[in-house]
Amino acid sequence: MNAPLRIGILGAARIAAGFCQGVAPSSAVQVTAVASRSAERAAAFAQAQAVPRVLPDYEAVLGDPDIDAVYIPLSNDQHVPWALRALAAGKHVLCEKPMALSVDDVDRLQAASEAAGRTVLEAFPYRFQPQTLELLARVRGGQIGTLRQLSGEFGFTLRNDADYRLDPALGGGALWDVGVYPLSMVRALAGRLPASVQASATWGPGGADHALAAVLTWDDGLMATVQCRFDALVHRHLRIVGSEGALACGFHNHVGPGLDWIEVYRGYEGQREPVPQGNGFRLEAEALAALARGEPPHPHWPTWAETRDTTRLVQALLESARSGAVRRP
């Protein structure tokens, strides 16, 4: 039996607690240590999540020989600096989305990953869900004909006015936080960048986008719409329309009871077909562990090209929303 991938966590963020709970049943990965800027917070986190060790700081996590990989759930502006340090320390990296806030930084991470011989995975848990894999297989297998229209949306109510996600200097904004989910899925389905994009947004007092709506157009006639918000009832939907059929679902990070289906349309009436359930944190961590063991990459492993393209799309959409102009990503 293979030894589990030993993971250290940088920071005691709320999403890190969900990550610990998701991977706890896995025999392939094990969270072995956590560090935080607050020793008290790290200790409380470790006790609540049954993490065996609390280390004094992030550097101690990177320098620990008994840690194979690090999980980075820090604010968006801190992803690249700590991912680069982790790679330099010989660790594999599971980094919360967005991996980077610029294409240049994606390139830097790829170069560092290849130089270190270590893997970097951008944490989009939905990408490893059986639901997502089934969607991609059906579309790529031609089951709905030629792609014509894609639409994705994700929103919720952000109630904390002090949340870093409202600060553009820290990589905040609805598009970087939740819009990247449908945007990355649109890129995965289309397989390439659109020819042009245009967006409209509403802006908060600090300058971050609170809501954004975008239209993406390809030269062959494919079109997509993407919407994201910080001021609505939580919602997460995807619809894929082809020349001969359509698919719809919620493309959730964690598919449980009530979410484990895909709607298949051959006309006006759709039929729900069941898909397996799964915790996305566990699925993505186990995919990283398998690659770290030297196994072939997961067949739907997000590529550097996809990460680069999604980053380029976010930048182009924000530029369009600010200027009102059509942009070429």
From TrEMBL:
Q: Does the keyword Oxidoreductase apply?
A: yes
Domain of life assignment? Bacteria
Domain Gfo/Idh/MocA-like oxidoreductase N-terminal stretches: 5-122
Give a yes or no for keyword Oxidoreductase in this entry. yes
Ranges for domain GFO/IDH/MocA-like oxidoreductase: 135-247
What's a Pfam family in this record? GFO_IDH_MocA
The protein's matches in SUPFAM superfamilies, at most eight in alphabetical order, are given as:
Glyceraldehyde-3-phosphate dehydrogenase-like, C-terminal domain (SSF55347), NAD(P)-binding Rossmann-fold domains (SSF51735)
Q: Which UniProt keywords apply?
A: Oxidoreductase
What are this entry's molecular-function GO terms?
nucleotide binding; oxidoreductase activity
Q: What PANTHER family does this protein map onto?
A: OXIDOREDUCTASES, TRANS-1,2-DIHYDROBENZENE-1,2-DIOL DEHYDROGENASE
Q: What is this protein called?
A: Gfo/Idh/MocA family oxidoreductase
Organism, per UniProt?
Inhella crocodyli
